[in-house]
Amino acid sequence: MRTVYFDHAATTHLYPEVSSRLSATHNECFGNPSSSHSGGRKAKALIEHARRSIAKELAVKAKEIVFTASGTEANNWVIKHAVAHLGVRHVITSKIEHKCVARAIEYVQGQGAEVTYLENDDQGVISCSALEKALANTDHPTLVAIMHANNELGTLQPVKEIGELCQKHKALFFSDTVQTIGHYAFCPRDYHMDFCSASAHKFHGPKGVGFVYINENQKLKPWILGGGQEYDYRSGTENVHGIDAMALALQLSNAKEDHHKQHALHLKKALWNGIQEVFPDVYQNGHPTSCLYSVLNVSFPAHVPKEQFLFELDMAGIYVSGGSACSSGAAMDSHVLQAIGHDNARKAIRFSIAYSNTLDDVQHLVEALKSLKARYQRNSVSA
Length: 383
Prior knowledge:
Blueprint: E1 4-5, H1 16-28, H2 38-58, E2 65-68, H3 71-85, E3 90-94, H4 99-110, E4 114-118, H5 128-136, E5 142-145, H6 159-168, E6 172-175, E7 195-199, E8 210-214, H7 240-255, H8 257-278, E9 283-285, E10 295-299, H9 306-315, E11 318-319, H10 335-339, E12 348-352, H11 359-382
Parallel strand pairs: 1-11, 3-4, 3-5, 5-6, 6-7
Antiparallel strand pairs: 2-8, 7-8, 9-10, 10-12
């Protein structure tokens, strides 16, 4: 059976060049980077070359890049340590952050930090005026934690304005940029970000490796104690091959950004038109223009069986998501959909596109939707 993958916001396949690089470094560079012999020095050099490469792509300093195992790890580290070690007593955030950010903030709230949740509109955009009011009304050292792009809706937040407000009110700014790094070339400094995070598998790199940007003016305490790797921030033998492959994946993604964007927008339009032809009573969730070019979140009519729809698409060889990858099988709306006032009677499906998708993939999906609709109509008549 043919399969079509439209779940690239959850994870992406490796670029062929990255896959080849991984294979080569596994065979040719297996030394421990902390070893003093030439095999270890070779591995260490590979890590530092990757660090410089990533720093160049982000237009920051190499010492501001610290490697982690995931975006989730980076997000937890920044939030927990900002409160524990940077004197932060107030966290301002949104109701639609990724679960790892939301739960880390709940944790620090339990440790005594004050938390303010900003309201968002029905497209998932937070209010900068509400943020300024919250910043103006606090006397405590504050961390603002707002993601760059929502992982379910694709909505982009006004991070430039957010960063300027943080700078004005001397608040720290942390942004979960897992869905944007590798899709948009940008410099965290341009948005006055003190911290931001990335995960390689979101931009055609390997799973199990990511990084955090820490502005040179900030100093977090060590996250994992041990041999002092990663500037003593995160001890443990580094994922040499993953780090090297991640740097290549980011370089390739930034170089191909314009092509990938135009290709995805073309397919996104065709996909939306095709879905509307089959189910006229659908609507998009999230901001229609200020959004990830690769993500389309669609609410299907209430008569579509909500609990079966995702499973039946899977059985038809269509790989999509009902939310974030962390909760895509849930019957109830996610916290993100609830926050935008989504109709829980409807099933929301996230389609996420990459350069490897084709118009033929779109057509295959549309034909699968037609078959499912015909089945639902037959079942309705027989009932």
